[in-house]
Design brief:
Shape: elongated
Largest sheet: 2 strands, antiparallel
Number of strands: 2
Helix content: 55-70%
Strand order of the largest sheet: 1-2
Strand content: under 5%
Radius of gyration: 25 Å
Number of helices: 6
């Protein structure tokens, strides 16, 4: 391994023949990964909510995911389902999601609405 020209004495650069280049880091320093991992997760939600609240929110999220999965399964697999009935299922899923998470309509519109719309287009060959 050779020190790159113009590099500081603590920085090393390996040759291209070795298959990797690490210019600008100290020898043995891999983006301080060992330091980052030792501090544990620093999620802002962990500081603001107690353990029971986080567990309850996790249960509600899992329930929502399961509900959306079931709605998508019914829409894709029921051969007798009409477009109107599928639309009612999707609307009911949105109402239930907003009942569980009242202020999260934008999140629903970003995460689940496109999936349901894509499924409806594929299933019923809509534009």
């Amino acid at each position: 391994m050779a020190v790159a020209t113009g590099a500081t004495p603590n920085c090393v650069a390996s040759s291209k023949a070795e298959g990797r280049i690490s210019v600008g880091r100290k020898k043995g320093d891999f983006m301080n990964m060992h330091q980052q991992a030792s501090h544990g997760p620093s999620f802002p939600i962990g500081d603001q909510q107690s353990l029971p609240e986080r567990e309850e929110e996790a249960r509600k999220i899992r329930r929502l995911q399961l509900m959306i999965s079931m709605v998508m399964s019914v829409i894709s697999q029921d051969p007798n389902l009409t477009v109107e009935e599928a639309s009612e299922l999707a609307a009911g899923a949105k109402r239930a999601a907003l009942a569980m998470f009242p202020d999260k309509e934008l999140a629903y519109d970003l995460l689940y609405k496109p999936r349901l719309q894509r499924l409806m287009k594929e299933r019923f060959r809509l534009q």
